[in-house]
Specification:
The structure holds two protein chains of two kinds. In chain A, strands 6-7-8-3-9-10 form a six-stranded mixed beta sheet, with helices on both faces. In chain A, strands 13-17-14-15-16 form a five-stranded antiparallel beta sheet, with no helix packed on it. Chain A contains eight helices and 18 strands. In chain A, a hairpin with a 3-residue loop joins strand 14 and strand 15. Chain A is an alpha+beta fold. Chain A has two domains: about 230 residues, P-loop containing nucleotide triphosphate hydrolases (Rossmann fold, 3-Layer(aba) Sandwich); about 100 residues, no CATH class. In chain B, about 25% of the residues are buried. Chain B has one domain: MetI-like (MetI-like fold, Orthogonal Bundle), CATH 1.10.3720. Chain B has 14 helices and no strands. Helix content of chain B is about 70%, strand content about 0%. Chain B is mainly α. The radius of gyration of chain B is 24 Å and the shape is globular. Classes of the chains: A alpha+beta, B mainly alpha. At the A-B interface, strand 6 and helix 2 of A face helix 9 and helix 10 of B. The complex binds adenosine-5'-diphosphate and magnesium ion. The site of adenosine-5'-diphosphate has 10 residues of chain A, from helix 1.
Chain lengths: ~350, ~280
Amino acid sequence: MATVTLTNIRKSFGPNEVIHGVDLDVANGEFIVIVGPSGCGKSTLLRMVAGLETVTTGELRIGGERVNEKEPMDRNIAMVFQNYALYPHMSVFDNMAYGLRIAKTPKAEIAERVANAAKLLQLETFLARKPRELSGGQRQRVAMGRAIVREPDVFLFDEPLSNLDAKLRVQMRLEIKALQRKLGVTSLYVTHDQVEAMTLADRMVVMNAGDVEQIGAPLEVYERPASLFAAQFIGSPSMNVLRGTAAGALVTLANGAVIEAAVDAKGPVIVGIRPEHLAPDPQGPIALDTTMSEPLGWNTLVHGTMGGTDSELVASLAGVHRESELQGTMRFSVAASLTHLFDAASGRRLGG
Amino acid sequence: MSGMVEKRGVGLWLTHAGLILGVLVIFFPIWLAFVASTVTQPEIVRPPMPLLPGDQFFENYREALVSGVNTPVARMLANSAVMALGIAFGKIAISLLSAFAIVYFRFPGRQLFFWLIFLTLMLPVEVRIVPTYEVVARFGMLNSYPGLIFPLIASATATFLFRQFFMTVPDELAEAARVDGARPMRFFWDILLPMSRTNIAALFVILFIYGWNQYLWPLLITTDPSMNTIVMGIKQMFPSGDDVADWPVIMATSLLAMLPPVLVVILMQKLFIRGLVDTEK
Ligand SMILES: Nc1ncnc2c1ncn2[C@@H]1O[C@H](COP(=O)(O)OP(=O)(O)O)[C@@H](O)[C@H]1O
Ligand SMILES: [Mg+2]
């Protein structure tokens, strides 16, 4: 168990800088999820912590000790890869035991640790099998078992669930969460899936093109996104963004509608409103010219454009609604406290 | 429906008849060689040639194995085995290691070395045989096993093959091993080598036969009959001048020379067919 500290970490491949200075303090036992779109540098960041990529500049500490120059095995980390990376010719037992054998752990202890991990992951009956004789979910468990038996200070996960089907993904997500709680090992988990980020993280790191947009607890990021990017990346469907002009606490939108915001501002701004915060209101200021609706059962998404403009707008209505109720122009209002204001130029959040 | 079955029946018979005929045509010379190795010398030279085996099987084969013409065939078989095994194992070891270096390490001149190896693919033994002879002679390796084996051991083909195979092994596997604490050679032994075993088995068969069938090179560097290999040894059995060739013994030797490659193919076949059926990835 250990803390992980990243100080102004940068990474360049040749002339291209792909990580532009990341600072992160991970507390002992904390579950950190690094989330962002594909290509934003999540894996690169994680691989630097693992020691599989060199750090170009900046300092990396694990358990307070500088590890920039250390080999992966000397950092006492364990990693779970996206494609599992199990050794195909070795049995499940040997896959899990391999690292311990290299570390010259006594045989009896290896057997005990593997047995414990297998029990924890319900792999006891598969120990003699080869990876190709296992299902995707079982392989995923073996990969986790291989990480667990090392009793590392830090777990690193690189999109460990993205090769599984949707149902299994939900199940494994819960298992990973329960496992991490139980073992209390500091974990860094990379994903492009905001649902995984929301459900797993103690704190999440939202990344965009090599920069950190926001670091915070899931609900903190959801309720107070620090930037337009974080606002749109977290939450599904994604937050509506509407251009407008602020004067004090009132914002005039492109079609002349006026809504009340939570903070005072002046000049061009971007208003963010989550689809689930648009409340149907015949007198409401926001008009939605509907084009399509998607009934999901527990809620219904109404797609369209904001009345008189071509900016897209999505509303999420609780419960079941028939298509016939969702025709023509619908009107909505939004509570001032549920609006978000962003600077039109920088995309940073305005106000507290 | 029934017509189709019938037609298929006839077609099947015809196909089989064709195949059997083909096998007979190909097998006939080998049969003749076998017959010739079981009769006496006068029976062979007196036309017509016998088509059924005689009663001299044990005598002829014993004579071939124990005394031969210049060298006992047993001795030549052993020489060939040493050479073929040396070449096969040597080539596999060297090409595995060079492919490992080229695929997994970034060192200056990596591409250059790869292309240098690749270039030698274009130079068959015959082209470089004179300078090679010169080098081997100066090292004093004429009439020796190292002289027979070393010059033929470098293999661009095998290096290339293993390189292609290693490149299909996911990078994450090497990284997982690194996180597990395996140093490069440990990764090579514990993971890469076992994963390559089907390729190694297939290559072993090809290389063993390649080594076994070497003719020109042993002919050049072995002047001492006790170092002759079997394939060139057969040629040496033909008398120069007017002496009569001892056909039964020569034919017995030819058949003996065929046996080891056939055995290797049959024995290894199981290994690589199994490997091909349950591909490991
Ligand atoms: N070995 C490499 N050489 C050059 N560029 C790389 C290398 N690895 C990653 N990159 C680049 O770095 C950026 C971030 O990649 P990556 O960390 O894999 O993104 P993510 O995991 O978030 O999808 C990408 O633009 C990618 O092209
Ligand atoms: Mg990635």
